Amino acid sequence: MANWENYLESNKSRFLDEMLDFIRIPSISALSEHAGDIQRAGEWVADRLNAAGIEGVRILPTNGPPVVYGEWLHAPDKPTILIYGHFDTQPVDPVDLWSDPPFEPVVRDGRVYARGSSDDKGNMLIPILATEAMLKAEGSLPVNLKFFFEGEEEIGSGHLPATIDSHKELLACNLVVSADGLQWREDQPSLLVGFKGLCALQIDVVGPNVDLHSGIYGGTVQNPIHALVRLLDSMRSPAGDVLVEGFYDDVVPLSAADREQIAAIGHNETEYREQLGVDRLFGEPGYTALERAWVRPTLELNGIWGGFQGEGSKTVIPSEAHAKITCRLVPDQNPNKILEQLSAHIEKYTPPGVKISTTPKAAPSPAYRIPDDHPGNQAAYAVLEEVYGKTPYYTRLGGTLPVCRLFLDKLDVYTVTFAFGLEDENAHAPDEFFRISSFEQGQKAYCKLLERLSEQAGL
Amino acid sequence: MANWENYLESNKSRFLDEMLDFIRIPSISALSEHAGDIQRAGEWVADRLNAAGIEGVRILPTNGPPVVYGEWLHAPDKPTILIYGHFDTQPVDPVDLWSDPPFEPVVRDGRVYARGSSDDKGNMLIPILATEAMLKAEGSLPVNLKFFFEGEEEIGSGHLPATIDSHKELLACNLVVSADGLQWREDQPSLLVGFKGLCALQIDVVGPNVDLHSGIYGGTVQNPIHALVRLLDSMRSPAGDVLVEGFYDDVVPLSAADREQIAAIGHNETEYREQLGVDRLFGEPGYTALERAWVRPTLELNGIWGGFQGEGSKTVIPSEAHAKITCRLVPDQNPNKILEQLSAHIEKYTPPGVKISTTPKAAPSPAYRIPDDHPGNQAAYAVLEEVYGKTPYYTRLGGTLPVCRLFLDKLDVYTVTFAFGLEDENAHAPDEFFRISSFEQGQKAYCKLLERLSEQAGL
């Protein structure tokens, strides 16, 4: 057993306690009242890097949430790897659907239940702990390492482009390894080779200048909720195609090879459907559910509100109604162009008698694709195969990791995702959890990955 | 000057203080946490009736909120008048749009600002004060009086049918006078001769069994918000017609006489539109705004909610989405039949991949119409003409006073509305207010009405 392996083994319970400490910071990036918690989480990460033996730890100045940087650069002639993760979390509502308070982690059945446990605090802690084990047990690392942890991934990493631009030399590397990502199943590893892009929009509909009594005014003015549902309904066909003009224009058609790679996974739609508790799956016709999730663009309504939401009846015509939309994009869709198409659609389909305005939410981000046989992928593939004893799948994600695209565009390096969350862990939903077995296996896998990258050709 | 008039004059400031006390009780009937406040408001009314010299004051047992009864029956050979009002209020949200806390009345520019000031606490207090003035200053009343105040008008008076059924003898009378209603303008009286009926429904859409990450699951399942907006959009044409099958089947067509009576009011649509701050009016084609508001049935969305409503972006496919609908009905629509038609429509138009359930909200109530020349109307007309110095308009209300219909069906008496709220007083909206001048003028008008009814032929 390697020295680092012994170290990981004997520090297990301390590492778990540290994860729980980290999770207790309610670092929700979408809500400005948590700005102080984002700051605290960044400082927690900086302290933890220092404790691990990482050097030059600092909080990079940005115009947004803090970015935490650290490095260990004493492996001459070896590649330099930049490790990425994020310490912000999703919001917690609807909070009444949680079994326990979201930021008071509960350990149950080998899992840690809490917001941020899987996405991404538990996962981003893994490479820090792996590094500590190697440094403390071996005295050195097999590669040069840089750490780069952000605090606004869940709202689209809007300030990262500028931060990366102004630290290009500091961040220069041969490969990025992302500690944000997924494995396929507890017993099945996977290599993520594609992410969707994203753009997000809030729609605000304003009608009469005050909420009106629907008995006195009903039938005389456009009801903002009616106008909103009409507008939103115009964006999608009954079958599930997006009807925004031009939406599919730049989409790279699905190749036979893509279809084969996705089909090879043997995704069981019945099982998937039953797991979600729906009587049928639904989406753009002509594609499997996995193809739709991974390589077809989508438009989803994430939130809607207006008027009375209490328990009884309130006979009101509200002054306002609102909705939030995100589009998940694929190569070669341009998120800014899609936002323009959405705005044009909204203008064209605005019902009479209301005013509609839109606000982009989250930073627009294009899709990302890494070649299957990239040297970083080769190293990750070998380690996953060794650790799991199984050939990894090549997978995609409908989710967005804007930073992959940023690193490619600005630092000219690809990002390999090497993370240990699973799809069933309720990321972005109530009762998020992270498996402690994944947490521990991930630490070993990271040590092996650094060793493998040290010898990897082509980097 | 009559003795009662002196009494009203010298007790002005006490009466105003009493109105403020009454308003401070947050008796919101739609929210079950305010059940205790409804009870307190009922007790306040009972105490106030006793103080006025009313006899036999009691709280009638019901299966719902309390009903307060009182009587004065010492005018042999004179008609018996039952005075109606309600001491419950609308909810207060959106509470952040109020200039002051809704249940802390503020007196400003001759107005009392608070929830319930106009609808209906200020108005229902008027006949109590008028009665006190006559009893204390004259020693007797010119007619026999019964008082009947309820605490669930704002949620459709669901328990009133049973309460009236079991107290038919107690409530027997020659005419009901409602202290819930409206005048046309500060300087223009009106006689309300028709109310719309009402039925209300909540729609609950359930999709996946938990909120899903829209990146991971987007495009694979029906989004409950998409399903809801599709369903709701199917209920109304772009022009504003209700598309629920059978909705207009039983509607009594608008007669030429009705149109003339409504046109006589000289409703200024431009002024109305500007007051509401919209760039155009909107509704069922072929009718004026006032015709739509008064005599055409409507379907309005009163509330909608689902998914993320916070400030940023949360990329979720929510498990649920919800909406609240009310229909305002006209003669001869049957509210239960309309609810069935709505349910059939919802079943027919439920999009694939979600389950939809509906719950009726508020008690279904048919529309109400009193003959223009009813003896009660004749008396009210004469008093209004005298007090305002102007010929009253004959008006209708899109709003619903279910109790008018109940009294007609169960006690075989018509209800004359005799109340002093105005349409601009934000009933059901933030910053509701009541004019102190209306409060005072109303007290005089009630005294005169009782005198007039004492001599009215045909009752």
Can you describe this structure?
The structure is a homodimer of 459-residue chains. Chain A has 459 residues and is an alpha/beta fold. Chain A has two domains: 3-195 and 367-455, 3-Layer(aba) Sandwich (Aminopeptidase), CATH 3.40.630.10; 197-251 and 297-364, Alpha-Beta Plaits (2-Layer Sandwich). Chain A is 36% helix and 23% strand. Chain A has 15 helices and 20 strands. Chain A has helices spanning 3-10, 12-23, 35-52, 117-138, 160-165, 168-171, 214-217, 224-233, 256-263, 269-276, 289-295, 335-349, 375-388, 402-411, 436-455; strands spanning 55-60, 67-72, 80-86, 106-108, 111-113, 144-150, 175-178, 182-183, 190-195, 197-206, 212-213, 298-307, 316-317, 320-329, 355-365, 368-369, 393-397, 415-417, 421-422, 433-435. Chain A has a six-stranded mixed beta sheet with strand order 1-2-6-3-7-18. In chain A, a hairpin with a 6-residue loop joins β1 and β2 (67-72). Chain A is globular and about 80 Å long. In chain A, 57% of the residues are buried. The interface between A and B is large, with 100 and 100 residues.
